[in-house]
Write a structure and sequence with these properties.
Number of strands: 0
Distance between the termini: 33 Å
Order of helices and strands: HHHHHHHHHHHH
Shape: globular
Strand content: under 5%
Largest sheet: none
Number of helices: 12
Length: 298
């Protein structure tokens, strides 16, 4: 196994062990409830299914919570993070083991995203979130238009590479640093990562291990703070975790099937990017929603 992949797995394993130990210890100490409702399992399963396809799940989980009126708004950010902190390891392991993305690129982009989030927590989180959402929404709409023209044969197709070299490598790593920082302002990294790597000439499937492994480090680290403060709904988080395993396992074969048919994969990516663009623009002009971030608002 390449050293770079070992490094990524080591990072994922260390943060997962830390969050599991912290969660179990806090549960025993505070006697938190661990029996989820059936609706928690369903929400976790369905939204993790969508997340594995690249659509994301935090906005959908938040909408489901708001619809049923539980948990309280102040506990939603922590519940989102803690409830997804363990399942993200399964997603990361599946995609890293099956999708042969270039190891050094994967390691560099995961580290860049983590460093970006760490630094961005004190900088980007103070920037106007609405302005960032509008900019990113418009950029993603343009990317979706480009991919549509590619799919229709109007412009040459994007590449099929599973790695990058030279200036493209530098651009990709630098951009993932920025995306990690933007997560502090509630800007998800899935669709931007897909658009970025495809425009740089990579196979769209290559974005999956990169974006999921990045979150595989960020989300558990964020969860440690929420577990320490107790600002999350423990039983609901357990339901999201258990349902999430089922959702990931159900969706993963579909992603693998699409990757074997590049045209279908490009159309799927186009749909995901268009959805993310419209959702981001809608959030910019609507009431604030809980977003995926590595520190306090996921």
């Amino acid at each position: 196994m390449p050293v770079a992949i070992v490094v990524v797995y080591a990072c994922l394993t260390i943060v997962e062990i830390a969050v599991v130990i912290a969660w179990v210890s806090a549960t025993r100490r505070h006697h938190w409830p661990v029996r989820p409702a059936a609706s928690d399992l369903w929400i976790g399963g369905v939204t993790s299914f969508l997340d594995t396809l690249g659509i994301g799940n935090y906005a959908q989980i938040t909408a489901a919570f708001k619809l049923r009126g539980h948990p309280p708004d102040e506990l939603i950010p922590g519940t989102l993070n803690v409830g997804n902190s363990v399942g993200i390891l399964l997603s990361s392991a599946l995609f890293i083991s099956v999708v042969p993305v270039e190891p050094v690129l994967l390691m560099a982009m995961v580290i860049a995203s983590s460093v970006g989030a760490w630094i961005g927590a004190g900088i980007v989180s103070r920037m106007p979130r609405r302005a960032i959402q509008i900019f990113m929404g418009i950029a993603l709409l343009l990317a979706a238009g480009f991919f549509t023209m590619t799919n229709l044969g109007i412009v040459p197709p994007t590449g099929v590479a599973m790695g990058l070299q030279g200036w493209k490598f530098v651009v990709a790593v630098g951009a993932n640093f920025v995306l990690g920082a933007l997560m502090c302002a509630g800007i998800g990294n899935y669709a931007p990562s897909m658009a970025l790597l495809a425009l740089l000439g990579m196979n769209p499937i290559a974005a999956y291990p990169i974006m999921i492994a990045s979150d595989g480090v960020l989300i558990p680290v964020a969860s440690l703070g929420f577990i320490r403060s107790g600002r999350f709904a423990p039983a609901v988080a357990v339901g999201l975790t258990l349902g999430g395993f089922v959702g990931v396992l159900a969706a993963f074969p579909l992603v693998k099937m699409l990757s074997d048919h590049l045209t279908l994969m490009r159309w799927a990516v186009t749909g995901v990017i268009a959805y993310a663009a419209l959702a981001m623009l809608r959030s910019a002009w609507g009431p604030g929603e809980v977003a995926r971030t590595p520190n306090a608002a996921a």
